[in-house]
Structure formats: structure tokens, C-alpha cells
From TrEMBL:
Natural source organism: Bryocella elongata
Keyword flag Transferase: no
Compartment list: Membrane
Protein name per Swiss-Prot or TrEMBL: Sugar phosphate permease
UniProt GO molecular function: transmembrane transporter activity
Amino acid sequence: MAESVTKPAAGVARGATVALVLLTAMNFVNYLDRYILPAVQEQIKGEFHLSDNQIGSLTLWFMVAYVAASPVTGWLGDRFPRKPMIVIAAIGIAAMNFFTASVHDYMSLNLRHAALGIGEASFGIFAPSLLADFYADDQRNRVLTIFNLSLPFGAAMGVEAGAWIGAHHGWRMSFIASAVPGLLVAILIAVFMREPKRAVVEGKAKADKGSVVSLLRNPAYLCAILGYSAVTFSLGGISWWMPSFLHRFAGYSIEAAGGVMGPIIVVAGIGGTALGGWIAQVWSRKTSKALYLVPAISAALTIPPAITLFFGPKGLLLPSLSLAIFLVFLGTGPVNAATLNAVPANLRATAMAGQLFALHIFGDMFSPKLIGIISDTSDLRHGLAATLVTFAIGAVIFFVGAKYAPELHHALPEGEETPQAA
């Protein structure tokens, strides 16, 4: 029987909790899959006889596909039900990981990694915009902080489990193992998750060309995505190369490097995400600028421990890594809430597509390759130092964005009912 999702008075739509749990679980799988490759890249480099430049190029082609898919998925997300597209994306991600077992040359690995980018781009656009339709403005920071808690946990599990499985069973088995949870979560989403009703803004239920162009004239939105892009340049480059850095400069084995990174990312990443979301939630009761100020402070404070990590004594390597990860994750929940709150309801999927496009064009599409190029000409320490500059740029952009932060609302707007099979 078909039924509609109804909205209670508290600013939370029916079915919201189930959607949050399932999409957070899929986000965990999403980042687990993404961080399998950094965990085993030293093994892949040895088998295929690759340079650091070529290893960095794997992320480049992943991001090329990711960015190319974003405008299409954004367009689809603002016009069609997102639940079936999320299920298709989740199954596609699992399939790409499973088929990695058949990869035996560098070009095939590049193609496989690029195909994975299409699935991840689709989920990364559909899921936050769908969650935004379940919750009112002032609830989204809390909800997206919970959603983003899966980022450090998934990344940690990807690095640690990938390194352990790779060391004991070969790097291909790491990818096969990561395909299983993604398929299971896709099935659960298909069976249990509802499609929320989509809000109507000024009589429009869908995006048009004029409203999309308006995003480019929206300073609150632009500062949110450009500041996040600068931080993503740094975070993407550091996360990609840190297992190799620990292996080369701290003397860890590949398995031990993953074993060190996993717990640090879990404890520091989740702790930073949770604390940053809580600070922004409390602070935003006094000013909506908090959604920009927390990411700004987060980026600025990350610079000192990052310098110590790259160039300090070996004895301070792990403490500075832990502190840097904790600080950089303070802004992950608030910045996504800032992006969604800066745009009208009929443009949420398009806005997320624009965010992902910017994050990777100006962020982590080129940072692993650039770091690899610098590493080939000097060493990995100096390659990683490039990320210090973009942390500073991100902090400045977020501080500017606080000036344009829109006011927060406490109720869901009226919208059309979207039929969804029970």
C-alpha cells in the first residue's frame, strides 16, 4: 500500500530517524571503501612498479569521474525520488569494489577507481539533500554532524582493515571484503527507508536555470563550499599519503601503519566531529554565524600541529597527528549544514552537487598528485607541506562567509507529499 510521509509539529518528518541511521551506515561504508586504497597503496605500488606521481593519479581519475557525475546527479536529485537512486549508487559502489579482484594492471585500476567515483558522487549528493527534507533548518547541523561521524569511523576502518587484510590475504581481498557491507546496507535502505516530502519554495517544486545561476551569486553558499574546498585539499592530500608517510619516515610496516592510523582517526575524528557539532549547535542559538565560525577556527587551529607532524621530532609524530585530525574534524558537521541552509529547498541536491564539484576541482582532485610530484622531486615531508597553505586559505574564506550567514528557522516548510511504498 502506498502512503505519504507526514510532518509532525516538531520540525522533524516521519521516518527521519530510520533514514538518518541507514544513510549514516551507508556513509560509513562510503568512506570505508574510499580509504581501502591508501591502506594498500604501497603494495600496489610495488606490484605495478609505480611512482608516487602515478599513485597520486589514481585519486585524480577518481575525482574526475566524481566531478563529471555531480552535475547530472544534482539535476536528477532535484527532480526525481532520491531513495531508488541511493540504492542504485550503493549497489554500484559494492560492485566496483568486488570487481577490483580482477584488476591486474595500472590502467584497469584507474578505470575501476574512476567508476567508483560515480557511485560515491551520487550518494554524496542524494543523501544530505534527502536528510535536509526530513529536518528543519535548526536541526540540520545536529543531523549532519551525526551523518558525518561515519566519515572518520569509516576512514579508520578502511585504513586499518584494509591494511590488515592486505598484509595477510593480499590487497585485492581488502576490496572484496569492503563490498559486502555496502550491499547489505543497500538492501536495508530499499526495504525500510522512506522518501520525504519535498518542500515547495515560492510555488516551485523543481530547480530551473535561473535559480541554479543564483547559486553563483549567493555569497553564503560560495563561502561555505570554497572554504570547505580549501580544507578538503589539505585533508584529502594528508589522508591519502599519511600511511606512506608513517611507513617511510616513522619506520612502520604497512600493516602497522594502518593499525596506528585506524584508532587515531576513530578517536580523534569522531571526537572532533562530535565536539564541533555540539559547539556549533549551542553557539548557533545565539548567532547563525556559528556554522561558519566553527569551520574557520577548526582550519586555523590545525596548522600548528600539522607543521609539527611534518617537520617535528619523531617522538611528537603521533600526538601531533592525533591533534591535527581532532581539530580538522571540528568543522565537518557545521559546514554541511551551512551549505544546505544557504540555499532554497528546491535547490538542495543541486547545491550539494555544486559543493562536491568545488570540493574536488579545487580540493582533493589534485592534492594527492601534487604531493606525489613534490615528493618525487624532494621528499614526502615537503610534499605534505603544501597543505598548510590551503588550511590558512580555508580559514579566511570561512571567516568571510560568517558575514553572510542566513538566519535559521525552526520548522519545516510546507511541501508536496511524495508517495512511497510502505
